[in-house]
Specification:
The protein is an alpha/beta fold. The chain has two domains: 1-31; 35-179, 3-Layer(aba) Sandwich (Glutaredoxin), CATH 3.40.30. The protein has helices at residues 3-26, 80-94, 108-118, 132-137, 164-179, and strands spanning 49-50, 60-61, 70-75, 99-104, 124-128, 144-148, 154-159. The termini are far apart.
Length: 180
């Protein structure tokens, strides 16, 4: 082989090795981002004011989060785990849990269609079109759900979709504890 053709092959092989090491680290027994601690726990929710999504009249602001225990759910219509989690959110809303939504980097018509089709569990929804509020919250991926106490402080963060098992083993006990 000519030296010029060996260089791209060597670069490709190095990238394959690096990617393989990454997968080995995050695979079974590797690092799980849902276990990474959040620097936001026990801190006030960052100040924000988001416009409403298409078809809704009220957006979402930090002041909406004070006075009662609530959840903030960061979601998008293009997110398969968000769709999988949605029936759990509908159940929580029917049970009287106040859930606020932050729709992240979504096309307005797609977010509206998602809620029209699957139902709307949110008391209010803000459109985070640039992802700034999600960054301020320290969101790692979607969906992500934050538990907010009555004083507007973040008390817990759940990364990924909430499963039916987690609803009873984690979510409901935490809500009960926060409501005191």
């Amino acid at each position: 082989m000519k030296p010029i053709t060996i260089i791209p092959i060597a670069i490709f092989a190095a990238l394959v090795v690096i990617f393989g090491l990454y997968l080995w680290q995050v695979g079974p027994g590797g690092k799980d981002i849902s276990q990474l601690p959040s620097a936001m726990i026990d801190k006030p929710v960052p100040q924000f004011k988001l416009p409403p999504i298409l078809g809704r009249k009220d957006g979402l602001t930090t002041s909406d989060l004070k006075g009662k225990v609530s959840l903030i759910n960061v979601w998008a219509s293009w997110c398969p785990p968000c769709r999988a989690e949605h029936p759990i959110l509908m159940t929580l809303a029917r049970d009287g849990v106040t859930i606020f939504g932050i729709n992240i980097r979504d096309k307005p018509k797609n977010a509206k269609r998602f809620l029209d089709l699957l139902g709307n569990p949110y008391a209010r929804i803000g459109a985070d079109t640039k992802g700034r509020v999600s960054i301020d919250l320290g969101v790692y991926g979607y969906p992500e759900t934050f538990f907010i106490d009555a004083k507007g402080r973040i008390r817990y963060r759940h990364v990924g979709s909430i499963s039916p098992g987690q609803l009873d083993s984690i979510i409901r006990p935490l809500l009960k504890e926060l409501e005191g």
